[in-house]
Amino acid sequence: MTQTLNRTAVTSAPISEVIANRWSPRSFDVSVDVPEENITAFLEAARWSASASNTQPWRFIVGRRGTATHSTIVEHLMGFNKAWAGSASVLVVNLAETVSPEGAEQRWAHYDLGQAAATLALQAHKDGFHVHQMGGIEVDPLRRSFNVDDRFDIVSVTAVGVLASPAALADEVLREREVAPRVRKPLAELLLADD
Ligand SMILES: Cc1cc2nc3c(=O)[nH]c(=O)nc-3n(C[C@H](O)[C@H](O)[C@H](O)COP(=O)(O)O)c2cc1C
User: Fold this and answer.
1) C-beta atoms surrounding 76 within 10 Å
2) What range(s) does the Nitroreductase domain occupy (predicted)?
3) Pairwise CA distance, residues 162 & 27, whole Å
């Protein structure tokens, strides 16, 4: 379906269009897949993120709709995430390597993973797709299902797909959220010092 919503951020100075236009929908088109070259592109974008001492502690479990991996990820989403995220073409589990193979603590692993996830999202949006990250996930069942080593924290899941109309969402609350105004704290509130 065609996107008719204008979800562009209202900013106090011009910012990159891809940042201003990125938003997190819950209505994805179940009939359209993200092409393989675009999946590779957003994973490449994540790969080229900055990280502490270039440790690159991000890892991903990628499930394409119709595969057992995708179904397993959906199964371990929490609450209402399960109601909408299964329609996304691709689900990516985001993991942080908090301990190196040599046993060293990697203090910035979560920070670095966040940057990689943000970079992935921006690349996908730039390429015409939409992304919705989720923290509402069942970490322990995901760990067991994918046999994830304790050195890794399972942090979040990213849904990537093609935007559909809000009307495609079965739940009225979700439909309302899809069109609710996008809000942010004022910039001044974020600046603890700004001399
Ligand atoms: C780490 C993280 C966890 C999130 N968890 C959820 C979630 O479990 N379910 C959900 O629907 N949205 C989730 N979101 C999406 C946020 O609610 C959303 O990004 C925020 O409201 C701002 O909206 P915008 O991305 O459209 O600007 C999460 C986002 C992030 C970055």
Assistant:
1) 22
2) 19-77
3) 9
Structure tokens given for 148:
């994830």
Give the position, in ligand 1's atom list, of the atom nearest the Cα of 7. Answer: 26
Measured in angstroms, how far is the CA atom of residue 120 from the centroid of ligand 1? Answer: 15
- Average pLDDT of the chain is 96
Taking a C-beta distance cutoff of 8 angstroms, is the pair 178, 27 a contact? yes
Tokens of 155: 């942090």
What's the length of the chain?
Answer: 195
DSSP tally for the chain: helices H, then strands E = 8, 4
Q: Cα Rg for the chain, rounded, in angstroms?
A: 17
What b/e sequence results for 123-136 when a residue is b if at least 16 CB atoms lie within 10 Å of its CB, and e otherwise?
bbbbbebbbbbbee
Q: Whose CA is closest to atom 21 on ligand 1?
A: 24
Pick left, alpha or beta for residue 80 (phi over 0 → left; psi -120 to 50 → alpha; otherwise beta).
alpha
Task: To the nearest 10°, report the CA torsion of 116, 68, 33, 124.
Answer: 0
CATH architecture of 24-179: 3-Layer(aba) Sandwich (3.40)
**pLDDT higher than 60, residue 3:** no
